[in-house]
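Tutorial handout. Part one gives the primary structure; part two gives the three-dimensional structure as tokens.
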Amino acid sequence: MDLEIALESCQITNTCLLEYSEAQYKRLLRKIDYYLIPMMFFCYGIQQTDKTSISIQALFGMSDDLGLHGQQYQWLTTIFYITYLVGEFPSTWLLQKYHLGRTLTLYMVGWSICLLCISACNNWSQLMALRALQGFFECNITPGFMLITGAWYRTEEHANRSLFWQSSQGFFSIICNLILYGIARHVTKVGGIDPWRCISLFLGGLTLLGAVFSWFILGSPHEVKWLSEEERRIATARVIENQISEDTVGKKWSWAQFRECFRDPQVYFGFFNTLLACIPNGPYLRLTEIHSGITAFSSLMYQTFGFDEWGSMLYGLPRNGMYVVVFILVALYLRKFQNHRMWIMIVSCILPFVGMLVMSLLPNTPKHKWVKWGMYDMTVVFSLALFLGWSLVTSNVAGRTKRTVVSSLTLIAYCVGNMIGAQVFQTKDAPRYMAGTITCCACFGAEVVIIVVWRLWYMYENRRRDRVAEQEGLGKEEIKRLGQRLGAADKTDFENLYFRYSM
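Part two.
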């Protein structure tokens, strides 16, 4: 790259490169955390609860009331991920093109309405249509939150802030399961509306309430109303050192950046890491026989260990508590130790490999139910490899259009992996399900290999760029300054040779 030509072509405002004191940055960071983290924590947690709520509703009469039979229940999950996949590119394009926070909020309103309408369903066809719409509307929250995290936080803050709001999945599983448990028990005793319909009404109303608050809080630094003009400038200057342009509103689509995505090795590493992590996440089940899996239908799966329908909800709470604790501990660890993300990803694949193998090979007898319960709880760490892999997209993919495309490809892998996983455990393999067990363990093993090669590629590329800078006689401060200027000009991580990858 000819540096002078590149820099002359960059239309960068002086505001983007203003320097403020670290005290100003810290003061603003506290305000950013105060507004954004609780809101993202709530929205992501309620989205995960809404997505998997049919497994709880199935415990309380939904299948019998709607006359579900054969593979109809399984299709309620499959159709969700099909429309989730279809909606990825349109939704991420809208997130780049229009107001980030408002776009997220409108999608949130869409799936809350779907949940409210599910309470009025009288047959499988109606439920399928609403689940399809729900999948379409829920598809943009993860890429949207990845964009928000990148727009507000420095590279070294991406992993721990992402894990904080992603830990809400476990927290909401505990709180909402207790609330839904209480709702179902109460309605069962007093009669009236069916318990599963009450669950849908409650979750839909709670989601709609969250959407009201997100309308006023979520967005990029240039969009939100809770910052002053001076604070907007500080927020922009604070993240400029990421060497990634985060101003997404009203910008043109770059076909050059689109094509670059398919020449970038890290895109493929991230894609297959997500794909392999999600295959054990979407197991099939029949209404009469529950198969082993990691997340989908977890409330039902506890029944195979020997717990009744009420115990299935209550004994699942410790696992959700572990989920929250592990995520927060890892977030605090990564706050102190940089470039350790990929080591944690490797460990988070090895532990579920062991837990899944032991859990699946032991028979479903009362003698072994607590061992299986413990092994299943140990698999809770598997999603760290998935979420930390997503945080690497936030930290290491530069260029507005490139970031949008890579986020979409990553979420497409998420959908495909869950749909493949839905076919892994087959009734014909009962009761040991050896084929499904081997497939899941193979996925975790392959994921370890991919993460190791992924890290080696980052190390090679960083060292290559260091050698280029050394040949040019550039010091660290000069490399940082030039990298920031090119990043502010929306150059990709390929085009910006002063960009360094985080690990």
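Part three, for discussion. The domain at 38-220+260-488 is CATH 1.20.1250.20 (Growth Hormone; Chain: A;). Confidence is low (pLDDT under 50) at residues 1-16, 283-300.
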